[in-house]
Amino acid sequence: MNEERRVALATIKEVQRGVDLANRVPRFRAITVLAMVAVSSGVFCIGTSHCAETKPLLSTSGVSADADTSEVKWLTDFEQAIVKAKRLERPLLIDFAASWCVPCRIMDKKVWPDASVQKALENEVVPLRVDMDGKHAPPLIEKFKVEFVPTILIVDQNENELAREGFVNAEEFLEMTRKLRKE
After folding, report:
1. Residue 47 and residue 18 in contact, taking contact as beta carbons nearer than 8 Å
2. What PROSITE patterns does the database record attribute to this sequence (predicted)?
3. CATH 3.40.30.10 domain range(s) in the chain
4. What's residue 25's pLDDT?
5. Which of these, 27, 75, 167, 170, has the minimum number of CB atoms within 10 Å of its CB?
6. What is the mean pLDDT of residues 124-145?
7. What are phi and psi of 151, to 5 degrees?
8. 3-state secondary structure string, the chain?
9. Residues 74-94: what's their mean pLDDT?
């Protein structure tokens, strides 16, 4: 267990320094639970004498405090988003995220700001972000059977699921949208 804690602490420090962990997803997923506990508590300890403070990964709005996601025009109301998707005749992209989710933080920092991803979000889908801890989240979590975060879900205007993924890098996200164009 001490080795897992050491890896989790190192991973948290790398995330805080902005290191791209997208290429280490299998190892990263293995310690995500430990990292989530560490981040939510604000202090991560190995044993009794080696503690490190962690800074908050997401602001209270559910968006990373230091990520450049200002270009993403996330809607936060499902009903409003589905109406817009119908009006624009586009699929609805739902990003289920949480303030304590380390992979969500990585996506905020490395995926959503990517220029190609920004273009896809602006021109191909209607982006909706659901804060898993928000008061409006439980019905959507149940409706779409969300079991983990992040969950990236794409639905059509009739709310039929078209695609579902967890953590993705920019290229994997763009592949999701390419598949939508082919259908």
Report:
1. no
2. THIOREDOXIN_2
3. 78-182
4. 43
5. 27
6. 95
7. -125, 120
8. CHHHHHHHHHHHHHHHHCCCCHHHHHHHHHHHHHHHHHHHHCEEEECCCEEEECCCCECCCCCECCCCCCCCCCECCHHHHHHHHHHHCCCEEEEEECCCCHHHHHHHHHHCCCHHHHHHHHHCCEEEEEECCCCCHHHHHHHCCCCCCCEEEEECCCCCEEEEECCCCHHHHHHHHHHHHHC
9. 96
